[in-house]
């Protein structure tokens, strides 16, 4: 009798376990299926990197800098032409640099008693692309030699290396001045300032160019 009771208990337990498995496989009371086992997420597709020339990503100064490097890489000019500049003060001079018959660069010097200004024009299609200006303020007048220093009981004679130097860089694109370093003084409206500088540089360029 004891053996029959134990066998009955075992069969009852097996039936109960089978009923639980069946319940887990059936939909929930709400009608929604049981949650699926979490799957490993798929990797995200790689981000496409836009080309450098795409709209909105182009550096407006990039072509100007590239042209500057191209001209500076020229090691032998096909010809150079020197001209005097007829202008007030101590006068000036200009050197025109040609490569394969094309004018690529101009260096101009404008002299004064108390300083000078050196301007380098880097050209693209015959027009300024990049303009580098350096202004030198002498420590003494250019004729102020050691004799003048002693006669005036001064401590310094004229020495070019003692000059104060200011530098200005101007960037042109399609005939317009688009950037200038240093920036306009604080509080100065940028657009009128750039237009004024653009007109000044273009007028000076045409005056130098006419001396060829």
How is this structure best described in words?
β3 and β4 (115-124) form a beta hairpin. The protein contains 4 helices and 7 strands, in the order ααβββββαββα. The chain is globular, with a radius of gyration of 41 Å. The chain has helices spanning 2-25, 62-72, 146-151, 190-209, and strands at residues 79-85, 92-99, 102-112, 115-124, 127-137, 164-173, 176-181. It is α+β, with helices and mostly antiparallel strands and 212 residues long. It has a domain at 62-209. The protein has a 7-stranded antiparallel sheet. 29% of the residues lie in helices and 30% in strands.
State the end-to-end CA separation: 130 Å
Low-confidence stretches: 1-7, 19-57
- Oligomeric state of shown chains: single chain
State mean pLDDT (0 to 100 scale): 81
Rg is 41 Å
How many helices? The count is 4
What distinguishing features does this structure have?
single chain; disordered N terminus; seven-stranded antiparallel beta sheet; alpha+beta; 212 residues
Summarize the structure.
The chain is of the alpha+beta class and about 210 residues long. It is built from four helices and seven strands, in the order ααβββββαββα.
């Amino acid at each position: 009798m004891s053996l029959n009771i134990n066998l009955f208990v075992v069969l009852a337990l097996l039936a109960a376990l089978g009923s639980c498995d069946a319940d887990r496989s059936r939909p929930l009371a709400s009608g929604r299926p049981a949650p699926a086992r979490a799957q490993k997420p798929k990797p995200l597709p790689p981000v496409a990197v836009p080309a450098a020339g795409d709209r909105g990503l182009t550096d407006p100064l990039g072509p100007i800098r590239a042209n500057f490097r191209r001209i500076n890489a020229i090691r032998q000019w096909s010809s150079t032409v020197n001209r005097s500049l007829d202008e007030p003060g101590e006068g000036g001079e200009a050197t025109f640099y040609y490569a394969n018959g094309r004018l690529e660069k101009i260096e101009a010097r404008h002299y004064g008693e108390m300083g000078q200004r050196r301007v380098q024009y880097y050209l693209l299609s015959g027009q300024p692309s990049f303009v580098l200006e350096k202004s030198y303020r002498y420590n003494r007048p250019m004729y102020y030699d050691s004799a003048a220093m002693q006669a005036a009981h001064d401590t310094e004679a004229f020495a070019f290396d003692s000059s104060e130097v200011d530098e200005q860089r101007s960037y042109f694109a399609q005939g317009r001045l688009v950037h200038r370093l240093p920036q306009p003084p604080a509080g100065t409206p940028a657009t009128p300032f750039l237009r004024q500088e653009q007109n000044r540089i273009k007028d000076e360029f045409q005056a130098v160019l006419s001396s060829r």
